[in-house]
Design brief:
Length: about 250
């Protein structure tokens, strides 16, 4: 059953392992899972984490079976093989893949909490509630620690919560980052803002009408600009279109 991006939180790897182990073979129905693990938030968030990482498949009734990757992880013969499969799951989940991919590309040695939260909420526009983002970031760091990608450090004495990447993290991730990500979420790459030359911004309630147009900001670089035209008159729209090169102004 496909799911929206709901950042995992309020669970841990031990709980996830327990559910994977319990679902080996033919899987388990929701009633059996609730009998074994309880029917509260803990099970719900553990199943969400497993689902987001594509380690289980769920049907509409909530019954669970292990995915192929989930089986490979659950049946891994040793800790090293299990960590490899966990790295694969992490690299395949867009909100985890994006900060790790960028860190490897930029040569970062650590991921700090504000940087990851900004990437999720601003660059990826996940729109998660604040309390979930904070706890989800900690869960991500702990999971990456479990996969031997780095060491989770809790923020104390003015230091921010962070993940200090292992020196081999890049080598561990690259085989999986090189694969196309079937579960990708759009990421807006940060870029320098061009000088403001367009029309003055429009304020007001949520837009009822808008226009998206391409505009070149440098050779070989194009950005998409979305403009709210709800309260614009026809003359102002024409001036704007002429400004971005989509309509010729009358002499």
């Amino acid at each position: 059953m496909a799911s929206e991006v709901v950042l995992p939180y309020r669970t841990d790897w031990r709980e996830m392992e327990s559910v994977l182990d319990y679902c080996k073979g033919k899987g388990a129905d929701r009633a059996a899972l609730e009998t074994r693990f309880g029917a509260g938030e803990g099970l719900r968030e553990t199943l969400n984490a497993l689902d987001q990482l594509a380690l289980i498949d769920r049907n509409e009734a909530g019954d669970v079976r292990l995915s192929m990757l989930g089986e490979q992880l659950a049946y891994a013969p040793d800790r090293a093989r299990r960590q490899e499969r966990l790295v694969e799951a992490i690299a395949g989940y867009a909100p985890y893949r994006a900060p790790l991919e960028r860190a490897v590309a930029e040569g970062r040695t650590l991921l700090d909490a504000p940087w990851v939260e900004h990437l999720w909420q601003v660059d990826m526009r996940l729109g998660q509630p604040r309390n979930r983002v904070e706890e989800a970031r900690t869960f991500f760091f702990r999971l990456a620690d479990e996969a031997a990608l780095g060491v989770y450090r809790r923020g104390v004495r003015g230091q921010t919560t962070r993940l200090e990447l292992d020196e081999d993290a890049g080598a561990m991730l690259r085989p999986y980052l090189a694969r196309p990500n079937a579960r990708a979420v759009s990421v807006v790459e940060p870029a320098a803002e061009p000088a403001a030359t367009g029309p003055e911004p429009v304020t007001g309630d949520a837009p009822a009408a808008s226009l998206t147009v391409p505009a070149a900001v440098a050779p070989g670089v194009t950005v998409m600009i979305q403009v709210d035209m709800t309260d614009w008159d026809f003359e102002r729209i024409e001036r704007f279109l002429a400004l971005v090169g989509h309509r010729r102004q009358d002499d």
